[in-house]
Structures are given as C-alpha cells and as structure tokens.
Amino acid sequence: MFKTQLLRRVAGAARPQAPRVALRTRQPLISAIRPFASSPYRRDKEPVLDDMDAATTMGSPGESGDHEGQYARTEKSIRVEYPEEDDLPPSQPVQGRGGAHLLRTLAAFSMEGRVGVVTGGARGLGLVMAQALVTSGADVALVDMNRDEAQRSAQGLIDSFKADNPGSDKVPKVTAHFCDVSSPTSVNQSLAEILKTHGKIDNLVTSAGFTENYDAISYPYDRMQKLWGVNVDGTYLYSVAVAKHLMEREAPGSIVMIGSMSGSIVNVPQPQAPYNAAKAAVRHLASSLAVEWAHAGIRVNCISPGYMLTALTKKILDDNPELQKQWTSLIPVGKMGRPEDLMGAVTFLSSDASSYVTVCEHSAW
Ligand SMILES: NC(=O)c1ccc[n+]([C@@H]2O[C@H](COP(=O)([O-])OP(=O)(O)OC[C@H]3O[C@@H](n4cnc5c(N)ncnc54)[C@H](O)[C@@H]3O)[C@@H](O)[C@H]2O)c1
C-alpha cells in the first residue's frame, strides 16, 4: 500500500467520532507528525528529503529522461525566427469539402448578406476561415501584409466557390487589401478601401499574427516589439476600427479574435514567452471588449487553437523534426489540427447561430 494511503487511513482511524463541525477546528494528525519546510533548496547541495517527500514527489533516476521535469520544460537551444515571405509556401483554399449546401442545417448559420473582414487572410488559418465565411454566404475582404498572396487567395476562394457550386447564380465578392495591422494609419487606410468596395462591414476575424522562438534572455527586443505589435496592437487596432464603423451604422456585428492555447498554457519545449503573453493579452482583450461593446450589439469571442498544421508550423517542424513527436504526445487527441477544423467554429461565432454567445474563449485542441 502507498505510504500516503496508509497515513490517510491512520489519520482516519485516529479521528474521534465527533460531529463534522467540531472536526474542522482540529489539526489533522498528519500535520502533527510531518515537519513543514519552506526554505528553498540550494542548487549546490542535494536537497534533504524526508521519507515521505522521497516516496511521493520524486521519480526514480532516469524515469523521466535525462533529468526530472525534462518533458515539462522549455529548451533554450530551440530557436525559430519568423521566416522571410519567400521561405513559406503559399496556402490553397480547401477543395471539395462542404462547399455546396446540400444538407439541411439551421438558417441561423447562414452568412448571406454579411460582409466579413479577415486579417492575415492571405494564407493559413485566416484563409480557411475566410473560406468558411464565403461558403456560408458572406462577401469577404482579405487583409494582409502580403499583397500578392492575398490577391491570389481571393481569386482562389472565388474559383473554389464556383467549382463547389456550379449552378449558383450568385458568386461572392472576395477582395484583397494590403495592410500592416500593427500600424494605425495602415489599418484606417485599408478599412476605408474595404468600405469603398463593399459598402459595409459586419464581421471581423483577426488572424494576422505570428510566433517566434527564442529563450527569454536572448530575445531580441526589436523582434519582441514587432511580435506584440502584430499580435496585440494589430488585433486591438482592427477591432476598434470595425467596432467604430458598426457603432456609426448602429448595426450589430461579431468579432472573432484568433488567440492561441499559448494564451493559457506554457508550450514546451520551444521557448516563446512573449508570444504566450501576447496571446494571453488577445484572450483578455476579447473579454474586455465584449463587455465594453455589448451595449452596441457587438459580440466579441476568441478562438484559441492548439497546434494546427499550417505553412508556418510546417516550416517550424521541418526545421525541428523532433518537435512534432513531442507536440503530439502532449495533445489528448494525439494529432495536430487541420486549418479546416476551425471552419465550423468561426462560422458559428460569426453568424446568428451564436447570437447569445460573447465574452467566450473557445479552445480548439
Ligand atoms: N498555426 C498554428 O498552429 C496556430 C496555433 C494557434 C494560434 N495560431 C494563430 O493563428 C493566426 C494565424 O496563424 P497561421 O498559422 O495561419 O500563420 P500564417 O503565417 O500561415 O498566416 C498569418 C498571416 O498573417 C499575415 N501577417 C503577418 N503579419 C502581418 C501584419 N503585420 N499585418 C497584416 N498581416 C500580417 C501573414 O502575411 C500571413 O498571411 C496567428 O495569429 C497565430 O498566432 C496559429
């Protein structure tokens, strides 16, 4: 029998048969026999452990790899800098999956008549989520710093729609717009351009963002500022611009922010403290703005994906092949997500199907 169980039984047996209320004031027997040590152990000395600590808190030597806690720590030798544009393969819209409306579904999921903006929509998760909105009936403006790829992707979405809906008499309007979301001037310029082309905006999905890996001590300050600039400022600036437009129109709307599981957990083994903090900021920004804009009928939610296989994560895995094994070993369902796994979530949160859902973080992992 385990020692803890044994001690619990001893404590149970020693407990007098008194009413529960009286018991609460009594010191448990276990604390009377076990000294409480609060001083941290010194690195240059072996910690002195009593029998109980040794039996219950330590693994056997070698049991958890080279050193204890190995699989729960970050590894500072892993460094991944966000690649140059030319180093990333372009994304393609999803083909032949769920494009045509052949199955009955709730009308509330339809995005007919809506105009959605997707930042970072040129590729990756943004592109597939934009496709979900188009497939559900919306016109969409792709906003991205990569102008050429955004234009190719906009055309790709129209082509996919036509291929999936050969008899459709209405083809959605999908446009591409340059924007550096971390710049207020650029955000306002692109918003004006979208309004000129589409006339209005009802929905926003903020997917522009990126991650890099450096240990915190070595993280170059300018890169950290850029990371926060795109992930946090970019999300904030675009959301405020769209909310202002909605309030001026006195129209309801929905904003879906793309956070990350990294906003609520610490990923291992790659070190990425600034990214984790940035995504925690996005998560709480969603809650804060949801409360602030509820009076105007503007809903704000956050999707926090786990590891999804996009061009960006593929590049990271190509550079660090061991990572995939470690990542999947930590995912309860045992596999990374596909970008299209987010299509339903973003459609739900953007459409009237979620009209009473706001201030919510939706984890996808
Ligand atoms: N891929 C994953 O596993 C994963 C997991 C959780 C969260 N996320 C988040 O999802 C979002 C999309 O990630 P992805 O994997 O699709 O990345 P991605 O690199 O494939 O796509 C990101 C897009 O954002 C654009 N972009 C970057 N900086 C920009 C800027 N300053 N202004 C405008 N556009 C800019 C890029 O050009 C690119 O088209 C990011 O916010 C990311 O942090 C990704």
UniProtKB/TrEMBL annotation:
| Official protein name in the record | NADP-dependent mannitol dehydrogenase
Could you tell me which species this protein originates from? Answer: Massariosphaeria phaeospora
Q: Which Gene3D superfamilies match?
A: NAD(P)-binding Rossmann-like Domain
**InterPro entries on file:** NAD(P)-bd_dom_sf (IPR036291), Sc_DH/Rdtase_CS (IPR020904), SDR_fam (IPR002347)
Query: Which molecular-function annotations from GO does this UniProt entry contain?
Result: mannitol 2-dehydrogenase (NADP+) activity; oxidoreductase activity, acting on NAD(P)H, oxygen as acceptor
Question: For this protein, what is the EC number?
Answer: 1.1.1.138
> Could you tell me the keywords of this UniProt record?
NADP, Oxidoreductase
Supply the source organism's classification.
Answer: Eukaryota, Fungi, Dikarya, Ascomycota, Pezizomycotina
PANTHER family in UniProt: BENZIL REDUCTASE, DEHYDROGENASE ARBD, PUTATIVE-RELATED
**Oxidoreductase keyword on record:** yes
Per the UniProt entry, what is one GO biological process? mannitol metabolic process
- Disordered: annotated span: 53-72
Which family does the similarity line name? Answer: Belongs to the short-chain dehydrogenases/reductases (SDR) family.
